[in-house]
Amino acid sequence: MPTANQVEGRKLWFGSIGDARNAVQIHEMGVEAVVLLSTDLTDPPARDTVVCRVPLVDGEGNASWRLQLAIDAVASLVSGDVPTLVCCSNGMSRSPSVIAAALVKIDGIAADDQLKRLLVGRAADVSPGLWRDIRRTVDQIR
Known about the structure:
Number of helices: 6
CATH class: Alpha Beta
CATH architecture: Alpha-Beta Complex
CATH topology: Protein-Tyrosine Phosphatase, Chain A
Mean pLDDT: 91
Strand content: 5-15%
Helix content: 40-55%
Oligomer: single chain
Shape: globular
C-alpha cells in the first residue's frame, strides 16, 4: 500500500525517504521519475527510474538557484505528464513546498493558496524559512 500522498488530479506524489527507497511501491504507483530533495538521501530508487537530486536544507539558506532547479524540474515533469514522486526526509516540508511552487508555475494560483490546497487533510510541518525562500523564488519566476 503506497504511503506517499498523491496530488489530486495529477500523476504526482510527495513522500519520504522510505517512499523513495521502496522500489515495489514506486512500480505499483507507475512512477517514472523521482525528485530527491533531502540532503541525507543517497540510495537511488528503482534502477529504471529517472532521478533528479537537488539537496535542500529544511530551512532558510538554500541557494536560490537550487530552489529554482528543484521547482523547474518538478514543473517540467508535471507539465510533461510524467508520473513523479517528490521526496524529502519525512515528506512534510521540502517536498510539498517545492510541489506547491511548481504548481504555481503551471496553474498560476497564488503560492500560499496552492500550498494550503495541497496540504488539506495531510500532516505537514513546512519550515517557515524554507517557505519564505521558495515564495521569494516563485515571485522572481513570475
